[in-house]
Amino acid sequence: MSAQPHSGAVSAAKLRAHAPVFAALGDETRLALVAKLSSGASLSITELTTGASVTRQAITKHLRVLEEAGLVHGVRRGRESRYQLSPEPLEEARRVLNLISQQWDHALARLKAFVEE
């Protein structure tokens, strides 16, 4: 007989759906771009490259990955593109991580109760 998952368990399908967001955030450069964009302002590639240890071309590639994951969106204005953070995927990722954290808390509480019996 298989064990029933905890009612608040995160399904494999839900994890798969959020994998692109977690993968995009797993890179230091992309995480730094998200941090810069978290101010709420739309920033150009030139502004996002300032202070970065990578080229403008590399920043552009990282922005494409973030865009594909739904974390940022770019708007073309004349000759430049400006990027803004899309907070919804981050909020959903946070909710998934909170559910996983709760699962661990429940598992540890069950283990503690078992050991103390």
Give structural notes.
The chain has about 120 residues and is mainly alpha-helical. The chain has a single domain (about 10-115), classed as Arc Repressor Mutant, subunit A, CATH 1.10.10. The protein contains five helices and three strands, in the order ααβααββα. It has helices at about 10-25, 30-35, 45-50, 55-70, 85-115; strands spanning about 45, 70-75, 80-85. Helix 1 runs antiparallel to helix 4 (about 55-70), helix 1 (about 10-25) packs across helix 5 and helix 2 crosses helix 4. The longest helix is centred in the last third of the chain and has 30 residues, at about 85-115.
Q: How much is the radius of gyration in Å?
A: 19 Å
Q: In the residues, how many domains can be counted?
A: 1
Low confidence ranges: 1-6
Annotated CATH architecture: Orthogonal Bundle
Query: Which descriptor suits the 3D outline?
Result: elongated
Structural class: mainly alpha
What strand order characterises the main sheet?
Answer: 1-3-2
Number of DSSP strands?
3
Hey, roughly how much beta strand do the residues contain? Answer: 5-15%
Q: Please report the first level of CATH classification, the CATH class.
A: Mainly Alpha
Please give the largest β-sheet.
3 strands, antiparallel
Topology:
Layout: H1 12-25, H2 28-37, E1 43-44, H3 45-49, H4 56-68, E2 72-77, E3 80-85, H5 87-116
Antiparallel strand pairs: 1-3, 2-3
Helix pairs in contact: 1-4, 1-5, 2-4
